[in-house]
Amino acid sequence: MIEKPTPFNDKLLLNILAVSNEATAIYTTDDIVIQFANDAMLGFWGKDRSVIGLPLEEGVPELKGQPFKYMLQQVLRTGITDNGIISAETLINGELQTNYYEYEYRAIPDDNGVPYCVLHTAANVTERERNKRVIAQQQEEAQALTEELEASNEELRLINEELIISNNELDNAQTQLQAAYNSLEESEIALRLAIEAANFGTWHINSVTRAFITSARLRELFGYRADEEITIEDTLAQITDEYRGLVSKKFENAIYNGDDFDVTYQVVGYHDQVIRWLRAIGNLKADPSGEFSNFTGVVMDVSELRRDEQRKNDFIGMVSHELKTPLTSMKGYVQILKSKADKNQDKFSSDVLDKANNQVSKMTTLINGFLNVSRLESGKIQIDKQVFDMALLVKEVEEESITTITSHKVVFAPVVETIVKADRDKIGQVINNFISNAVKYSPAGSTIEVACITINGKALVSVKDQGMGIAPKDIDKLFERYYRVENNSTATIAGFGIGLYLSSEIVERHNGNIGVESVLGKGSTFWFTLPVNLV
Ligand code: ADP
Question: What is the pLDDT of residues 407-421, one digit of tens each?
Fold first, then answer.
């Protein structure tokens, strides 16, 4: 038979609690008097048994200012168990440390259910809590790190995207550059081939340093050996005296004023002493800074062309000269016949002989034109200046025109005294050329106005017609040798395109200007100016 165990008395129970490893204390009354505290609890507090019977904050004054007393009072008053983890500053080995305690304050009711004491159990979980906190902190840090990493990852992704875009752009630019380079290379090859095929010499000058780089062919053109080093001065020295000044002037104008550089001149080869005609064309290019300029160009041998031209001019000159003599004789014979017919009052023969005389005059003018061109080209044209009144010259032209021009009404006004120093015959030729063109290129019956005035210190002679006019595209070229406007209206009008060329050369040799204002279909005004003679 099993013996019924003796029930534990309070003392026994307290003894059991006293050896429990779990720190335990019991408090009573609102003052939270320590009724019981086992060794483990005393160890927490760092106290001995003398604290038993004292209010908590008296026995363990280190707890003052902390919420324990209040919490215990609450449990005792309400009977509601309080548990959790609490941190407390505890003096351990003379050092205040934060410790964590898992605690339970449980109200123990009396037989009537009224709480009369609080059972306090506690375990020091500082180590565990610390670890937990360290882990939490580590997690937090890891999280922050992850977020930071994500942010930089995002940034990297964006940068990457940008890099991909710029990479593509670079690729495109590279492709375009390559294409441009290829086409540049192609055009350079084409240019080189063209230059070689045309046997051009090339040169290149830095206008600031004046470094002069030439091709072998250029050196040959100036009579130097292909491998010889030459300077600008060396090339200038080989240009004949007649042209050296002109070339230097054009050269300086091109470099300092950006003028066109296209000049034809004669050289005598340095070693071979061969006379050559050269044409140089240059182009001035400023570098992007605008500070330095490169002057580049080609030189071609135009000797053969010049010789052909010379032969043609000589031929025209010779033929014109040979034709002039029989024409002069013919004119004489016609005039003798006319005076005879007039004497015999043979009106028919007289009229026919007038016409013959006119035709001979026209032919003489034509032949003189050719002769003048050939003289001009070979530099044999002579300007014999004398002082005269332009008004008187115009009056002479007027008298002549009255007999020769019947198809048009020619008005000479205003014609005012204008003293000039010029070649009277040649200026007369210019006026006659303007008037005969006005007759040729305007309808019969229309009016031609000839004027001679002084304006801005210059003599101005103009011939205005009501003819076909000239298209803007032709105006600049009218004064070129052999240039004729080609259209339906001019097709039936005879001419060689030398009259205006001769006129402009004559006016230029007088330091004058020549020009035309024209409206297609309405008429033209040809004019020239000469400096007035002030003395
Ligand atoms: P030509 O009359 O012998 O052809 P010019 O040198 O005198 O030679 O004239 C050159 C060209 O200028 C002419 O062919 C003509 O087309 C044009 N021209 C000259 N004068 C006039 C004018 N008054 N009206 C219209 N065109 C003209």
Answer: 999 999 899 999 999
Which residues sit with their C-beta closer than 6 Å to ligand 1? 433, 437-438, 441, 465, 467-468, 470, 478, 483-485, 490, 495-501, 524
Using the mean position of ligand 1's atoms as its centre, give its distance from the Cα of residue 191 in Å. Answer: 39
- Per-residue pLDDT tens over the stretch 264-306: 999 999 999 999 999 999 888 776 666 667 788 999 999 999 8
When the candidates are 3.40.190.10, 3.30.450.20, 1.10.230.10, 3.80.10.10, the CATH number that belongs to 199-301 is 3.30.450.20
Helix extents (H) in 87-125:
none
- Tell me the CA distances in angstroms from 451 to 397, 416, 499, one per residue in order: 12, 8, 20
User: Which option is the CATH number for 386-531: 3.30.565.10, 3.40.50.450, 3.30.70.20, 2.60.40.10?
Assistant: 3.30.565.10
Residue 13 has pLDDT above 80, yes or no: no
* Residue 505 CA, ligand 1 centroid: distance in Å: 16
pLDDT digits (tens, 9 = 90+) for 204-252: 887 667 788 899 999 999 999 999 999 989 999 999 998 999 999 998 8
- Alpha helices per DSSP H over 344-421: 347-377, 390-404
Structure tokens at 153: 């990852």
Cβ distance 414 to 362 under 8 Å?
Answer: no
Give the Å distance between the CA of 523 and the centre of ligand 1.
12
Of 498, 203, 524, the residue nearest 368 (C-alpha): 498
Q: Supply the angle between the helices 347-377 and 303-343 in degrees, to the nearest 10.
A: 160
* Preceding omega of 414 cis (within 30 degrees of 0): yes
Strand segments, DSSP code E, in 260-319 are 261-268, 275-286, 293-301
- Contact present, 514 and 431 (Cβ < 8 Å): no
Q: Calculate ∠ Cα 204-209-214, nearest 5°.
A: 25
Residue type for 309, please?
E
Give the atom of ligand 1 at the shortest distance from the alpha carbon of 433. 7
Domain ranges of the chain: 10-124, 199-301, 307-377, 386-531
CATH of domain 10-124: 3.30.450.20
